[in-house]
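A.,

Following up on our hallway conversation. Structure tokens first:
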């Protein structure tokens, strides 16, 4: 379609846009009811970017609210998961400018992450991951600016990013688990990070019980956020999806959409009710301390067996069919459990959980509200003013509702707790608001991470950008202010006040990566900051230590032999902000970043005899192109 044709249809653009929305809604709603594979996949394939006019209804879009003038800084950091890209991204809010990508479970060519020796060892040879949930460490109910935690659903891992360097310093393999999905750190202090296994497996997954899904279970795993050690696991019978923690350190939560224990779609969706698992952390830790645990697999992690009935460790709060998100409001009182296949959010009163654990009330008695918010509710966030905002996947809206009114409406049908439904574009997954996951929720900005962008951007082929929309929630009415294209597929994001994060400008020479290279250098008796040295450490093994100071490498030329295993370790001595070097060795697949004051290395095999130039790939100086040297490979 030409521009002219677009213009010619300008008057009809909104109508076309609206009818497309209705089409999507209708198809998906029917799908959800009929439980077809297409229900939540929504790849209808009938609408494309080119067959409809731009859908942006400009009248409803306010310009300029997101404008951050050149040279000015954003008010918030946004930490985005990167989904199948395996990374984390940092955006500035409200500009939505992408500031950084932090490689985590992926191989990243720009920085060398995954091939560089420290990261390669952390990743254990794997080069892909699936990050869904990013959460920062807490102290006293708000972000303490120390760490970012992120899950890997693909290989059941948890990674930690240091907020001073914004680089990963630890990755933990979670034993006895598959599909690590929801994670949440405790909020009273940097304590445990709780991780949910979404997939049920035989607890001892070594070939036993493969054909008997009734024996499968899933682990709720506690990892110490300080030491990154796996402390304990609780084995439950059903699956676990999203995770949450309370504000006091007493409970953790997991939604369960497959209480049936099904292994196919029909099986997982058979029951009308599933549940929210509530974990009593003190009771679990007492069982661990008392040795009331079982041995699972070959892991030494103590496992508390809580399969079956409610007991001291786990309570199952019945909620409607296939819940997804669970989010705790900023007062710490309520857990909001989104229905996914039910149009409701179940509000669980956390203050009633003690009585339910004690058997004085039923678990269902802890549900104090269940507002109808729309078709396909997934996640809820908060403005700190008593309102909740729920992402509604099938309807493609964000629904704003009042928590107090929803509680009143539970016993009085004349009360309507729904305040507004705002169209988003399209099929929103997570939504989150500024500081929403803390007691300091400030109700300024909300993001809607839409899974489909359809016609919102230029068509770039079958794989479209996602659409991360920014919404102003500071007033009484939500207002859409920005469309942000995102490379697939950020699932979740948190928005953090900028004064809480304190990144450094030089790499502090401490921590896991530094210690990794220090240990190697100590073996060779080399001071990495002072010495340029080629050390033959074995018959076919060479270490090359060199420093870099713009625009020269400490070693202009070194000799190795064909077939040598060469470990090249570079220390950037420049103490100048933003002055990164790196090293790339021609034809050897060696290319990594070395930030100011950092040390990094990579190991490779020297190729056939010849001269191979190595050079600095990061533009660092007027003589950057001259920053190079020769590796001479002898036969
Ligand atoms: Cu947090 Cu996408 Cu993994 Cu919901 S999940 S959408
Ligand atoms: Cu150093 Cu370019």
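Then the amino acids I'd put at each of the 635 positions:
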């Amino acid at each position: 379609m030409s521009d002219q044709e677009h213009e010619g249809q300008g008057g009809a653009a909104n109508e076309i846009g609206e009818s497309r929305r209705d089409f999507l809604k209708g198809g998906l709603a029917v799908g959800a009811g009929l439980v077809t594979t297409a229900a939540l996949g929504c790849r209808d394939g009938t609408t494309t970017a080119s067959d409809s006019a731009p859908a942006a209804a400009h009248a409803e879009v306010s310009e300029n609210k997101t404008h951050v003038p050149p040279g000015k800084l954003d008010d918030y950091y946004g930490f985005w998961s990167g989904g199948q890209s395996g990374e984390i991204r940092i955006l500035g809010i409200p500009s939505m400018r992408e500031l950084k990508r932090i490689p985590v479970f992926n191989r990243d060519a720009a920085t060398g992450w995954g091939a560089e020796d420290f990261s390669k060892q952390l990743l254990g040879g794997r080069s892909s991951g699936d990050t869904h949930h990013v959460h920062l460490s807490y102290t006293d109910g708000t972000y303490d600016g120390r760490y970012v935690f992120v899950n890997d659903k693909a290989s059941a891992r948890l990674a930690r990013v240091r907020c001073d360097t914004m680089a990963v310093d630890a990755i933990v393999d979670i034993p006895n688990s598959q599909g690590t999905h929801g994670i949440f750190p405790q909020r009273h202090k940097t304590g445990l990070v709780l991780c949910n296994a979404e997939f049920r497996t035989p607890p001892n997954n070594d070939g036993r019980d493969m054909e008997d899904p009734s024996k499968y279970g899933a682990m709720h795993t506690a990892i110490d956020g300080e030491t990154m050690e796996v402390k304990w696991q609780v084995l439950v019978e059903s699956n676990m999806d999203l995770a949450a923690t309370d504000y006091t350190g007493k409970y953790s939560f997991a939604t369960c959409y497959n209480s049936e224990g099904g292994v196919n779609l029909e099986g997982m969706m058979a029951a009308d009710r599933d549940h929210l698992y509530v974990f009593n952390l003190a009771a679990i830790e007492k069982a661990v301390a008392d040795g009331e645990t079982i041995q699972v697999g070959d892991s030494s992690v103590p496992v508390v067996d809580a399969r079956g009935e409610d007991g001291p460790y786990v309570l199952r709060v019945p909620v409607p069919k296939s819940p997804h998100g669970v989010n705790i409001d900023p007062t710490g009182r309520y857990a909001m459990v989104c229905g996914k296949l039910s149009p409701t959010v179940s509000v669980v009163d956390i203050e009633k959980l003690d009585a339910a654990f004690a058997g004085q009330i039923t678990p269902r008695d802890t549900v104090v509200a269940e507002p109808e918010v729309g078709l396909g509710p997934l996640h809820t966030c908060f403005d700190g003013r008593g309102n909740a905002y729920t992402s509604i996947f099938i309807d493609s809206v964000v629904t704003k509702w009042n928590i107090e009114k929803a509680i009143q409406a539970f016993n009085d049908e004349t009360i309507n707790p729904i305040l507004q439904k705002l169209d988003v574009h399209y099929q929103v997954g997570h939504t989150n608001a500024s500081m929403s996951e803390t007691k300091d929720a400030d109700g300024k900005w909300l993001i809607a991470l839409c899974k489909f962008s359809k016609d919102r951007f230029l068509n770039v082929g079958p794989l479209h950008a996602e659409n991360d929309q920014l919404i102003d929630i500071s007033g009484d009415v939500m207002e859409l202010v920005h469309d942000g294209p995102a490379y697939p597929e950020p699932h979740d994001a948190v928005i953090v006040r900028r004064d809480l994060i304190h990144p450094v400008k030089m790499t502090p020479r401490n921590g896991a990566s530094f210690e990794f290279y220090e240990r190697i250098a100590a073996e060779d008796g080399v001071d990495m900051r002072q010495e340029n040295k080629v050390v033959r450490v074995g018959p076919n093994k060479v270490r090359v230590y060199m420093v870099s100071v713009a625009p020269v490498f400490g070693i202009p030329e070194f000799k190795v032999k064909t077939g040598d295993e060469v470990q090249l370790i570079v220390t950037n001595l420049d103490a100048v902000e933003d002055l990164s070097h790196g090293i790339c060795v021609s034809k050897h697949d060696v290319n990594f970043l070395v930030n100011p004051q950092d040390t990094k290395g990579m190991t490779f095999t020297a190729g056939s005899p010849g001269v191979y130039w190595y050079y600095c790939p990061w533009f660092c100086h007027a003589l950057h192109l001259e920053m190079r040297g020769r590796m001479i490979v002898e036969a």
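The CA atoms of residues 42 and 627 lie 52 Å apart. Curious whether your intuition agrees with the design.

B.
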